[in-house]
Design brief:
Blueprint lengths: L1 H27 L5 H6 L6 H10 L6 H13 L12 H36 L4 H15 L2 H15 L13 H11 L1 H19 L2 H8 L4 H30 L2 H6 L5 H11 L2 H29 L7
Helix pairs in contact: 1-14, 5-6, 5-8, 5-9, 5-11, 6-9, 7-8, 9-11, 10-11, 11-14, 13-14
Length: 308
């Protein structure tokens, strides 16, 4: 197991380098001059423009700029935005909020998706199964912003049981409704994925063997059916955690959450490549770590899986 972890960590190095190089190239090689965008309608003097280009290494070749950027990432020095504020402060402010939001969304979609999907899979073809399939299709068909505005209206305005917008502290109680909105689409996928996996494993040979040996219904369902059905679900939940962090722009915009999505959106509008690149790079690291954790969970879910 230890050697497998080391090997996976070594495999992450070229993935990290390739992803960061691609991100840097896409952001910094797009048409336009970031210095002129920073100045706006004002006209910079040649001396001031030269100082700004030297500060952000824009007067050097692309590969040299990337190496400066990579050095800063490895030393946790993310530089400063064009507004003069350290990008590290933006990261420290925004990422904890979005991480809490994404964790809560994954918990909600995982808990309810697995429970409802397991019941639907065990009762395949019956009323509950048909109801869950129809409900999941309705959720998938609804755009996230529609679910967000409906939840904001009913929970916040009409019933008054949740805040309409989130304060700067973004406590867990304030994030419940946004997390429900953020994880609504993934909940439908988790439900259907669990339902199909449980329905398939319910008629597998190892389940019939366990039943023939006289094992109780609860043990057969929890140990044999559910445990073997969780591998694709865990894979989806792990990948979805990173996707929720990167795709929370709409939800954070609706509920005025000062997280990663809102900060990246504002940075794109203001034309601040250092902020955008730094945020996306941290998201890449999150994706890599989550995928490593998923691979390690496989051995716990299925004893047949061994890493040598």
């Amino acid at each position: 197991m230890a050697w497998y972890v080391v090997r996976r960590l070594l495999q992450m190095i070229p993935v990290f380098l390739g992803a960061t190089l691609l991100i840097y190239a896409m952001v910094f090689l797009i048409p336009g001059d970031p210095i002129k965008a920073l100045a706006g309608e004002k006209q910079l003097t040649p001396a001031a423009e030269a100082v700004l280009r030297a500060r952000y290494h824009l007067d050097q070749p692309f590969i040299v700029q990337y190496l400066h950027y990579l050095k800063g990432i490895l030393t946790l020095d993310f530089g400063t935005s064009f507004s003069g504020r350290p990008v590290r402060e933006e990261l420290q402010r925004a990422f904890p909020i979005t991480i809490r939001l994404a964790f809560l969304a994954v918990f909600i979609e995982g808990l309810f998706g697995i429970v409802f999907g397991m019941i639907a899979g065990l009762r395949k073809g019956k009323l509950f199964d048909s109801t869950m399939l129809i409900a999941s299709l309705v959720i998938i068909a609804l755009p996230v912003f529609v679910v967000g505005y409906l939840a904001q209206f009913f929970f916040g305005v009409k019933w008054g049981i949740a805040p309409v917008t989130v304060t700067g502290k973004a406590g867990l109680s304030e994030l419940i409704v946004p997390a429900f909105v953020l994880g609504s689409l993934s909940f439908a996928y988790v439900l259907r994925l669990t339902r199909n996996s449980v329905a398939e494993n319910k008629s597998a040979d190892f389940v019939r063997t366990a039943t023939a040996k006289g094992l109780g219904r609860r043990r057969v369902v929890t140990v044999h059916i559910l445990r073997n059905s969780m591998i694709p679900v865990v894979t989806f939940l792990g990948a979805d955690f990173g996707a929720l962090m990167a795709g929370a722009i709409v939800t954070e915009g609706i509920f005025n959450i000062p997280g990663v999505g809102g900060t990246m959106y504002q940075a794109i509008i203001r034309g601040e490549p250092p902020t955008v690149v730094s945020f996306v790079t941290v998201l890449v690291v999150v994706f890599l770590i989550v995928n490593l954790v998923i691979d390690l969970l496989y051995a716990a879910l299925d004893p047949r899986i061994r890493y040598a």
